[in-house]
Amino acid sequence: MKPGYELLELLAVVVVLVAVSIPVRVAFFVVVGLTLVFGICPFRFEVAKNGIIVCVFGLVGVAVANVLLMSARLAFWAVMHDLSVLSAGQGRLNRAPPCAMNYQP
After folding, report:
1. Which letter does DSSP use for residue 1 in this model?
2. What's the CA gap between 79 and 20, in Å, rounded?
C-alpha cells in the first residue's frame, strides 16, 4: 500500500460516518414531530393511537441506529489513537515485518 492511503481510508470512514449520522439525527426530530402531530391534531382515536405506536417503534429504530453509529465512531477513534501512538505523529501506521511478529526471545 502506498504511503498516505491509510489516511485516505480513514478520511473515507469519517465522511461515511458523518453522512450517515446526520440523517439519523434528523430522523429523530421528524419522528418526534410526527408523534406530536398525532397527539395534538384531531385525528380519530384509532388513527392517533396507531400513529403514536408506529412513532414509538420509529424512535426505537432511530435509537438502535444511533447506538450502532456510536460504536462505529468509538471504533474509529480507537483506530485513530492507535495510529497516532504507533506512528509517533507521522500520520502513517508503522507495521512490524511478519518475521518480527513471531519473534520469541
Report:
1. -
2. 19
pLDDT tens series, the chain, 105 aa: 555 666 677 777 778 888 888 899 999 999 999 999 999 999 999 999 999 999 999 999 999 999 888 888 777 777 766 666 555 545 454 454 445 445 454
Q: Where are the beta strands (DSSP E) in the chain?
A: none
Longest CA–CA separation in the chain, Å: 78
DSSP letters of 12-30?
HHHHHHHHHHHHHHHHHHH
- The model carries a pTM of 0.66
Q: Could you tell me the three cell numbers for 5?
A: 492511503
